[in-house]
Design a protein that fits this description.
single chain, 170 residues, two-stranded antiparallel ribbon, 6 helices, 5 strands, globular, disordered N terminus, signal
Length: 170
């Protein structure tokens, strides 16, 4: 699936069905898809998007560690096939872009290429410095959120929507 139309079609098809994943299977009466297959397909799509340069960094679904253990074994080969790196993050950088509840007690796989992971860790360290100094507010707080959005290659309009509390991801 190395054509962009296929990737975008898949992303649009699966993006709205995240809330159905509480069950072991998703889909209608005429077809069923197990959760692991869903997450692997999602991961594969984002690995391709990072590989071809449409995103600097992408994130897997945030999952409990025991679920991530099962998923991680399966996606390491996919990452290698797409020439992307994978980092398992148990404490994803919380900012105003995403609510803390989205990743609390969950792990996320960061999908990236090149020095993007160092950029992520630098942003995470900067936030920790600001919090420790009691300066994580106002413009400094907004800059951290914007940094996360830019690492994810979100357009400015989307970052503004998320910061305004509109169109929050599930």
């Amino acid at each position: 699936m190395r054509n962009l139309k296929g990737v975008l079609l898949f992303v649009f098809m699966v993006s709205g069905s995240g809330s159905a994943l509480a069950d072991d299977q998703i889909g209608g009466d005429d077809w069923k898809l197990d959760r692991l297959s869903y997450y692997i397909g999602n991961f594969s799509t984002f690995a391709e998007i990072v590989d071809i340069g449409l995103k600097k960094m992408a994130l897997s679904s945030a999952l409990p560690p025991e679920d991530m253990d099962q998923l991680e074994r399966e996606v390491r080969q996919i990452g290698s096939d797409w020439s992307v790196e994978i980092y398992r993050e148990p404490e994803f950088l919380v900012s105003d872009l995403f609510p803390e509840s989205a990743t609390a007690d969950k792990d996320v796989l960061i999908i990236y290429r090149g020095d993007t992971l160092e950029d992520y860790f630098a942003l995470k360290a900067r936030k920790a410095e600001l919090v420790e100094a009691g300066e994580y507010e106002g413009e400094a707080r907004r800059e951290i959120a914007w940094g996360v959005g830019k690492l994810l290659s979100y357009p400015d309009e989307k970052i503004n929507q998320l910061l305004a509390g509109q169109d929050r991801p599930h």
